[in-house]
Design goal:
mainly alpha
């Protein structure tokens, strides 16, 4: 069976959607002082505050890179790692379930971002990307 739509277009749609969402997340953290607020929050769970700064950089600049299609497999792999770590942290440290329940958070959105990032990683940059234009990755 053939694909209903060209995989290059699927890659573009996923890259732009996830990239825009990641930029929005990153901007919130930038406004909070480049991850200082989120750094204080993750420190309460035993995670070094520097990790929050790295996530801020990844979300903001990684989102831009996804949209333009530059270094896509690398950025997508970092997002897969990030969201897998968030899921593990939420479920182990915060006792979160898949869906939020009462005061307990859920990790369903993190799971969706993990799967979308994995899809981008598996699809690659596609023909409609700077990676393809520059002949890299």
């Amino acid at each position: 069976m053939s694909a209903l739509i060209n995989p290059d277009y699927v890659s573009l749609i996923l890259r732009v959607a996830v990239g825009a969402a990641m930029i929005a997340h990153g901007v919130q953290k930038v406004k909070g002082g480049w991850g200082k607020q989120s750094g204080a929050w993750v420190a309460t769970m035993g995670v070094p505050p520097a990790a929050a700064r790295l996530v801020t950089l990844l979300e903001f600049f990684g989102g831009i890179l996804l949209i333009v299609g530059l270094l896509v497999p690398l950025v997508a792999a970092f997002f897969v790692i990030q969201f897998a770590a968030i899921i593990v942290m939420k479920s182990s440290k915060m006792k979160a379930g898949f869906m939020a329940a009462g005061e307990k958070p859920g990790f369903e959105l993190d799971y969706v971002y993990l799967i979308l990032s994995l899809g981008i990683l598996l699809l690659g940059s596609g023909a409609l990307s700077l990676d393809a234009l520059l002949g890299i990755l």
